[in-house]
Amino acid sequence: MSCSLKFLLPAMILAVPMAALAQSQPRIYPNLGTPLSPAEIQSFDRMIGPEGKELPPGRGTAKEGEAIFAKRCEICHGKGKNEENGLLRSLVIGSPGKPYRGAFYGEERNGPSYYPYATIAWDYINRAMPVTDPGSLTPNEVYALVAFLYYRNGIIQENDVMDEKTLPKVEMPNRNGFVPAVPVYPPEKKPSWY
Amino acid sequence: MDANRSSRRRFLKQTAALAGVATGAGLAVRGQSAQAQHLHGELPRRGARYTIDHMTHYTPLQDYAGIITPAPLHFMQQHSSEFPEIDVQQHRVTIHGLVDRPLSFTVEELKRLPSVSRIHFLECHGNSSPAIHGAGDPNLGLPVQFIHGMTSCSEWTGVPLSVLLKEAGLQKEASWLVSEGGDAGKFSHTLPLAKAMEDVIVAYGQNGEPLRVEQGYPIRLVVPGWEAPFSVKYLRHVKVVDQPYMAWNESMNHSVTRPDLRDKARWYHFQFGPKSVITRPSAGLEMFGRGYVQITGLAWSGAGVVSKVEVSTDGGRSWKEAKRHAPVLPRAHTRFTFDWAWDGQEAVIQSRCTDEAGEVQPSLAELSKNWGMHLEDWKKTPRPRAIHFNAIQPWKIARDGSISDVLFA
Hints:
The complex is a heterodimer of chains A (194) and B (409). Chain A has helices at 2-15, 38-44, 62-77, 86-90, 119-128, 139-152; strands spanning 34-35, 59-60, 94-95, 98-99, 162-163, 178-179. By secondary structure, chain A is mainly alpha-helical. Chain A has a two-stranded antiparallel sheet with strand order 2-5. In chain A, a hairpin with a 2-residue loop joins strand 3 (94-95) and strand 4. The longest helix of chain A is centred in the middle third of the chain and has 16 residues, at 62-77. Chain B folds into three domains: 3-78, no CATH class; 92-254, Sulfite Oxidase, Chain A, domain 2 (Alpha-Beta Complex); 275-405, Immunoglobulin-like, CATH 2.60.40.650. In chain B, strand 24 (395-397) and strand 25 (403-405) form a beta hairpin. At the A-B interface, strand 1, helix 2, helix 3, helix 5 and strand 6 of A face helix 1, strand 6, helix 5, strand 9 and strand 10 of B.
């Protein structure tokens, strides 16, 4: 029996997913670390995945976002009516109704048009903006800002409402702009570094 | 002056005051770039660049010996204009998401768990960027520091991340993690679970001392051999998930559009390839007359051990094996030396790394071919963007003993 297990074991390890290696075993150091309650986790869990499952309730429109942008963002990002000043250069490529469809080599990459998922800009603004006071925007304000940016980038319509349901469904124009299409590990290409 | 510019100046002043940066008129004149004079009590330093949303320190590769980068000289890319002030007594590292037992650890508890100490390099994925070759700035040190100085190597001490994940008990859908830091912008990054279980360290020590604030005090991740942004500083939360969580930088900063991919962008490279650079003699230093000179430098690879380093002193026509000095460790800087006698004539010197996977550091021509680019493309202004740039670095020694960077010459 022990003999056949020896031969079986390598095959079993190959067959089970990585998670199984750490799964469902009793704790080795139960005296260290404190269990977290669901309420505690909810209080700090702000990581938003591409499906938007963790998005908090809220809503916003491009029009509301424009006003918030003027108040909280344009000091760094510039006023956004034309290409002479900040916004269009750094955050907007394309225009209402006309998303950018070209290649992203340089400055083109700077704005949310480059992101493959609509949730990314929401998550980044929510956690890191404005740079002087990150985390100070309410969920409604973040939805509105994202609506404003996506409208100006031609990704959504002016009156589209962004909320926890609609945002993850927004189709990003550069969704298919990456290789591999979905990140995989281990990487497909050998050598992986080029 | 337009209103926009004056508001930016006002913002610069406000932010400078917030960060404790002593400002001068030069700050606004130079746009968003400023040389900070005092930041959290740090002395002014060469090789540091502070901008409105970013702080960078470059390791002075030309001046350091052996393979261990002193902690205060370790490179730094801070995606914020200030360092977080974290109360070590209050700090917690949580493991949650797709686990059976979500847990929170104090720093003291992490120090009581079984520890490892390992020597590994960390490197910015943008190190050696073509954009900064030849862009001399007297504040930023010699070219080798400014161009290649976003790689450093330290002895890191901490708990294997696998220990914490096993304590929490992974659920069967678990396949990726996303980590979050306690800095102002809550820097976040995805990590495949397989790597987390392999060799990732939840570190509290660097070179025998507690982490410094620039390096993530009190706790950071160290992800050996991979792009340094995976090694999240000020580590606070590790969430176990079932797919890459796509933090903003993962698609934007860590991807690069390439002609060979029909203008799509390569992303999720993870591991660095073989790389090396001669640190002495190097551009910005001078030769002190003809005769014996020891060529020395560093080689490293994300794949593991550096198995061979070769040096050419004739512009790449011939190569001879350099001496690798112990310790030669996986995913660590390896010090190499090469005995040479300079005859006083023009010469181009360069090094080439081979790693344990058998991969060889490419020349610029080879790398360009891999990426579907032509050598002429690099002469454009600004130069094309590149990350994971590991081309062989040639330094040209002129007859007067001056040394220059001729990678794109």
